[in-house]
Design a protein that fits this description.
Radius of gyration: 21 Å
Bound molecules: protoporphyrin IX containing FE
Order of helices and strands: EHHHHHHHHEHHHE
Helix content: 55-70%
CATH superfamily: Transmembrane di-heme cytochromes, Chain C
Number of domains: 1
Number of strands: 3
Strand content: under 5%
CATH architecture: Up-down Bundle
Length: 230
């Protein structure tokens, strides 16, 4: 029998996210999707149909800024926890410069990495830049509460920046989702909170070594309990 399908062979799983971090991430993700739908519904007339789940135009307009504030709070809570592991180091330059090896899964040519690779870090820092821009420009164009505080010209510029930042943020998140699907076994990090030992060894070996060296094995590595997924 193929070792990969042998259900008597215990697999090792390494914890990657706590339950609280996963809840925090999924609330952020849901808010992001709702913001994208409600934002696009207001942006292009031919996407107006996207306002239907919110109850039409006026409710969509009313709820969108509140969703934005909630996303900013949730995202900042997430970002603070992940800051340390997203700091840049020399391995990121070495990893990113070997683009061909990344694309063709030539892992033997790639350096050992910590918890995140340069692509993940880029997503993190781009969102950390874009979310405050979206928040500030969003507050400026929030007519009901702040409309009288700024001039029409300022609001026009803010609206333009808001739309541009949103377009980039949506593109970045599409790449983020695609990368999670493309690199098999990543999804369970955010669904179950663990990754397989093989996944960790292949993609984030330095992080795996550090996790084991910290003496977390007893608590962290579970054997044979879950066979689903990768
Ligand atoms: C909408 C669907 C989304 C899916 C399917 C998704 C999926 C994932 C997965 C599987 C991971 C784990 C990656 C790993 O540990 O290697 C992850 C991590 C992460 N996600 Fe998402 N995500 C989504 C939306 C978002 C949004 C909207 C944001 C922020 C605006 C976000 C921010 C993050 C951050 C900061 C991490 C940790 C990686 C890092 O800090 O570099 N995600 N996501």
């Amino acid at each position: 029998m193929d070792a990969g399908t042998d259900r008597t062979t215990p697999r090792l799983y390494v914890p990657r996210y706590t339950a609280l971090q996963r809840v925090n991430h999924w609330i952020t993700a849901i808010l992001f999707v709702l913001l994208t739908l409600s934002g696009l519904a207001m942006y292009y007339p031919w996407l107006y149909f996207l306002s239907a789940p919110f109850g039409g135009g006026p409710p969509t307009r009313a709820v969108h800024p509140w969703l934005g504030v909630a996303l900013a709070v949730c995202f900042f809570a997430l970002a603070i926890q992940f800051l340390r592991n997203n700091l840049w180091n020399r391995d990121d330059i070495r990893w990113a410069s070997r683009f061909k090896s990344i694309m063709f899964n030539e892992h033997e040519n790639l350096p050992e990495l910590g918890k995140y690779n340069a692509g993940q870090k880029a997503v993190y820092w781009l969102q950390l830049l874009l979310v405050p821009i979206l928040l500030v420009t969003g507050l400026i164009i929030w007519q009901v509460y702040f409309g009288r505080l700024t001039t029409i010209e300022t609001q026009r510029v803010a609206l333009l920046i808001h739309a541009l930042a949103a377009s980039i943020a949506i593109t970045v998140i599409i790449i983020h989702i695609y990368a999670g699907i493309w690199i098999k076994g990543t999804g369970r990090a955010m669904t179950r909170g663990t990754v397989s030992g093989g996944w960790a060894y292949l993609h984030h070996r330095k992080w795996l070594r550090e996790t084991l060296a910290r003496g977390d094995q007893g608590r962290t590595v579970k054997a044979g309990s879950a066979y689903g997924g990768e």
